[in-house]
Design brief:
The complex is a heterodimer. In chain A, about 70% of the residues lie in helices and about 0% in strands. Chain A has 19 helices and no strands. The radius of gyration of chain A is 20 Å and the shape is globular. By secondary structure, chain B is mainly alpha-helical. Chain B contains 3 helices and 2 strands; from the N terminus they run ααββα. Chain B has one domain (about 10-200): Helix Hairpins (Orthogonal Bundle). Chain B has helices spanning about 10-55, 55-80, 120-205; strands spanning about 90-100, 100-110. Chain B starts with 10 loop residues before the first helix and ends with a helix. Classes of the chains: A mainly alpha, B mainly alpha. The interface of A and B includes residues 96, 107, 117, 318 and 324 of A.
């Protein structure tokens, strides 16, 4: 299979993404049952029909399964020259699972409970989640990661213990993910590389913006925060991020994070929820630009995968919001 | 209580009853004082509760909204996996006496720190909940105290009413009955004595 076939399939698959008006209709639902009625005729219907109980928690599981299936399908169709990169890209789902699992190990949560936080990733992940969740301690779980792309994380256990926080390990895991992804991105055809790096760079920038404001807004230690910054950027270079980490005033932080000042303003105003929405909108915009800018190349595929993730997030948000009586309008990525 | 039911119309019993009524009336006065004090205490506690709740309910609502938004933003799986590895909230509930009523007194042993612990979305929710935790505990403590005092006030009120409306009047009716019976007996005795005296003097004459 070649790249064109993959891109053409993604054009077809993108028609299955839920249009904005359907998401808006879902956001107006009054009960979880209404969501089920709207989603049953869609791609999510197959997963929802089989559910024993219908609530936001089980629906979220169904959405995650559809997301994993979509990723699996794209990876399966990948031509040889893109397979490594797309597999590395799809590992974000595995990293998500692993982060939750390690959090559980760090806080000594029962293995049975940890397993309920994981998304089944057959074909996308080779990790033995059963053994990892049963591991006696965080250190033992990390030992089980020997020989996987996540080996070498043991060194972050000490900072975790020192700061009483799992964040150093978690961000190191993210760092490993992006490092590996960027290594694969270097091998991409030049015509696709730029757009792929732009999309990845934006993701990293946005994660770093949230992290860099933690000392000013929430009093996080500066040295811990500096360790959590992912060493890659698009428009927010390390020096600027460190300026934000050391900033003593809101103005100084805003100046350091000028390319993302809107998000920074929300965070500084204590509205992380609105900042998150802004982040999602930027990612959606970037994904759409990538799809429109390179409709017959890899960026289209990455844009499609990014939209799949955003759709999964929006649907999960709607389901939980409807269950808790929160109005989801204004919190979606559309 | 039916007046005279089970009452022995004797002077000894009357004296015993009067002593008992005196004792009960003393208890009634004490209970009445306790009731007034409890009512005063309750009023003060309710005023304090309403002043503490002013603005606090909005804070709780805001915190709950943030937590719900956090769950919605991250999803249940992600949100549930964020836990503070530190030991959790530790409280000791000790009994404290307010006019003999045991009310709970909450001693905070440990409030977990949320700084440096969570990712951006979770930290906002954790911070909001953390900031209201102290107020939440003190309001809960005050509410429990009000509940206990109100329960005791209700009980005391019932006792005061029972003494005032049933027991004391009942005893008083019994006393009145015995006094009437004794007076009647005394009159009877007096008449009989007079009659006998008159009879004897007639015979002498």
């Amino acid at each position: 299979m070649d790249e064109t076939y993959l891109v053409v399939r993604c054009h077809g698959l993108s028609t299955r993404l839920l249009p904005g008006n359907v998401l808006e209709a879902l956001a107006s639902a009054r009960a979880v049952q209404d969501l089920v009625s709207i989603l049953t005729p869609t791609e999510y219907g197959r997963k929802i029909v089989g559910l024993e109980r219908l609530d936001a928690r089980t629906l979220e599981g169904a959405f995650k399964q559809v997301l994993a299936e979509r990723f699996r399908y794209v990876v399966r169709l990948a031509p040889e020259n893109l397979e490594g990169f797309l597999k590395a890209y799809a590992r974000r789902l595995e990293v998500g699972n692993l982060s939750r699992l390690l959090r559980g190990k760090y806080s000594a949560a029962p293995p049975g409970e940890i397993r309920t936080w994981l998304t089944p990733l057959e074909g996308l992940s080779g990790l033995d989640y059963e053994a990892l969740s049963e591991a006696e301690s965080l250190e033992k779980a990390l030992e089980l990661l020997e020989g996987t792309p996540y080996e070498g994380l043991e060194g972050y256990v000490e900072p975790c213990r020192r700061y009483g926080s799992i964040l150093p390990l978690e961000y190191a895991l993210k760092g490993l993910y992006y490092e590996d992804l960027l290594r694969h991105a270097e091998r991409l055809p030049p015509e696709s590389r730029g757009a792929a790096l732009a999309l990845i760079g934006l993701e990293v920038d946005l994660a770093n913006v949230f992290t860099s404001l933690a000392p000013l807004v929430y009093g996080y230690s500066e040295d811990l925060t500096a360790q959590l910054l992912i060493p890659f950027h698009r428009r927010a270079p390390g020096l600027k991020l460190m300026e934000a980490v050391k900033a003593r005033t809101h103005q100084a932080a805003l100046e350091a994070l000028a390319p993302y000042s809107r998000i920074a303003e929300h965070i500084l105003a204590g509205r992380d929820d609105l900042a998150e929405v802004e982040r999602l909108k930027l990612l959606r915009g970037e994904a759409m630009d990538a799809m429109h800018g390179a409709p017959i190349e890899l960026p289209y595929v990455l844009g499609y995968l990014s939209l799949c993730e955003l759709e999964c997030r929006d649907l999960s948000f709607i389901a939980v919001a409807v269950e808790h009586g929160v109005n989801p309008k204004g919190y979606l990525s559309i | 209580m039916t007046a005279g039911a089970g009452a022995r119309p004797t002077r000894g019993f009357l004296l015993e009853l009067k002593r008992r009524v005196g004792f009960i009336e003393e208890g009634y006065r004490l209970l009445e004082m306790k009731r007034d004090e409890l009512a005063k205490e309750l009023r003060a506690d309710l005023e304090e509760l309403s002043s503490r709740r002013m603005g606090f309910e909005e804070k709780v609502e805001e915190a709950l909204k943030t937590v719900a938004a956090m769950y919605a933003t991250l999803g249940y799986r992600e949100a549930s996996s964020w836990r503070n590895p530190e030991k959790g909230l530790e409280l000791e509930v000790l009994p404290k006496s307010v006019m003999g009523i045991p009310v709970p007194y909450v001693k905070v042993l440990h409030i977990p720190e949320v700084k440096d612990k969570f990712n951006p979305i979770v930290r906002a929710a954790a911070q909001k909940v953390h900031s209201i935790l102290g107020d939440l505990i003190s309001v809960a403590e005050l509410e429990a105290r009000i509940e206990r005092v109100a329960e005791d006030l209700e009980k005391t009120n019932r006792q005061v009413n029972a003494l005032e409306k049933i027991i004391i009047p009942g005893y008083k009716r019994t006393i009145k009955y015995i006094e009437d019976v004794l007076e009647e007996a005394m009159l009877e005795e007096f008449t009989r004595t007079k009659f006998v005296k008159a009879l004897l003097s007639r015979r002498k004459a």
